[in-house]
Structures
1.
Amino acid sequence: VAQRTLTATSFVVLGMLTYAPATSYQLKRRVASTIGNFWAFNHSQLYDEPSRLTAAGLVTVRREEGGRRRRTYTISDDGRAALAAWLAEPAFHQTEVRDLGLLKLFFGSLACPADLATLAHDQRQAHRDRADGYEAQRARVAGAADDFQLATLELGIRYERTVEKFWDDWLNGRVGVGLAEDR
Amino acid sequence: VAQRTLTATSFVVLGMLTYAPATSYQLKRRVASTIGNFWAFNHSQLYDEPSRLTAAGLVTVRREEGGRRRRTYTISDDGRAALAAWLAEPAFHQTEVRDLGLLKLFFGSLACPADLATLAHDQRQAHRDRADGYEAQRARVAGAADDFQLATLELGIRYERTVEKFWDDWLNGRVGVGLAEDR
DNA sequence: CGAATCATGTAATGGGTTACATGATTCA
DNA sequence: TGAATCATGTAACCCATTACATGATTCG
């Protein structure tokens, strides 16, 4: 039962396994349709992390005999305890927003105006699409998902609409010092 | 002039160096007061990355003779070209929002109500503080920063207010399926 | 003048990203 | 039945995180 510091990835895997045992591919699908919306995990992470958690005794594996010899992971009591402990402790970490578009905007003075306009259009569209997608998803899963998952989705929608509006305002000259005062 | 794929960190460093040559510590300070607000870089990254960029020929170093033997980095023409090329190319990468609080909310069904309430209070306060901080900062730098940097800050403020309101609504039962319809 | 903070690095570990590979299904 | 996609992994490299360390300043 080797000890190590658990990462966000660890808790994502543990959390997903509380719903039901799963293979890495199933984890990938569960993640992709939920938190993967705003926090990307590439599939190899979801193949690696369960191994580590197994080594730490937080999940157990069972490998198929024949065929593909798939590995199915199940959360252990220790795993549930670790997850519960994490949920109970205060979350004082800063939110990270990693947005290449925003980074480019920051250095906008170095870019040519045409590229900036393209950037703004692309970003507005991308965030609008994303918001639309979330709303469609919400309509689809409204019955199945629990309130917490729906709340997460709700914040996702609000976030994307906020950013969409920002780029729209930017394109229309409504972002700037001059207008900062009128709330 | 070794070739390698440039990362976001690379462009942050290159971009910061366009303002003026800088030591790693100065980079750290410039970053901390701007994009470091929402995209964290630990200081060793800003000591490592310039070395890599030097190896790639995108910046040049000059080391002090006496005293601390500080290294001062200057962006090269190749560096400017690389930055310009990046700014000109379309940005089709998904925004990443890495928020531990949101992750905990997602798994809220596994937590006890009291911990969830604490979480919500903490998050609301944290995001409010952050928004207030940004507004203070905007007031402070309004004259000095360029429009693009101010725009970045503006989005930061809108983002934090959105999230603050989300947690506030959550605490007041105003996030949920029932109310989804009334826009 | 001692403590705290500022400033400037290096080292080690491990997690994440990318790329490589290939066996199963599905579907035209 | 061939192509495309789904599914299931492995391997290597590199960046990011953490920890370690220590010399300069500042300030009470």
2.
Amino acid sequence: MPQPTFRELPTWLLSQAAVRSHRILHARLAGVGASGYEYRVLSALDAASTATQAELGRLTGLDRRDVAVTVQALEKAALLTRSRSPDDARVLVVKPTSAGRRRSRELDRVAHDVQEEVFGPLTASDRRQLVRSLAQLSGS
Amino acid sequence: MPQPTFRELPTWLLSQAAVRSHRILHARLAGVGASGYEYRVLSALDAASTATQAELGRLTGLDRRDVAVTVQALEKAALLTRSRSPDDARVLVVKPTSAGRRRSRELDRVAHDVQEEVFGPLTASDRRQLVRSLAQLSGS
DNA sequence: CAAATTTCAGTAAAACTGACATTT
DNA sequence: CAAATGTCAGTTTTACTGAAATTT
């Protein structure tokens, strides 16, 4: 056998598993009216309690531009507030509203349920090993 | 701890690992002037020797529409040919040209090299286990 | 008529790029 | 002046939807 085709490559298997996982999570989030970006921002913000937009970008892996757009939409929906930092006039401090915190936990629950659906085929020990390896791949 | 945030979820780790893997593969393919769709179609076609567009869609996991667009571009680049099937006038039979076969193997080599870069952090046995689990997740 | 194949027109999410004004 | 932050305008890739024409 010379070079394997893409269908036998680990990168392909990884991509396919992620596509399937993403499809399921995305469908569940859409079912409650949320996008993936919104979920990430709200969930990260709930965990941090308060964060600047730049911090949210680092926490969520989103580009600053995409953070700005998402945060603006969430502000319009009264799920978070933004205010200039007194310490640093460049920075916008973002805080969840109580509706935002409720929403965040609702989305965390939705995502939690998806884990079973996606990783159900694996044994608990395979699952642990998979999580370990995946964490290593994305720079732990 | 109530619900974990998205950053602790297996689906997130899977997504992040896939994003990183995709980024690397995509950059390497772009470096030789190919898109992911083109690589998948050419590689699948080279392995199958000949296929209809619908078959290519099933092999590559691409939507029929995206197969059509990709195949038309590859035809324009003289990397494959299309002809009506004599047996079934609905069907377009796609064959690689010799330039297409060379191109396909070039891209397979590029992708093969990426495997090391992406999965290098893992031991060989972790790698085998990961591939097994990933295959299970995408419906093996 | 039902089903499959191909094509057309379009949307949407995700990731990303380059530029700019403001502030530190 | 360099660096960081937020904003604006835009592209690319990938995935997908709905509809139409053709043929089986």
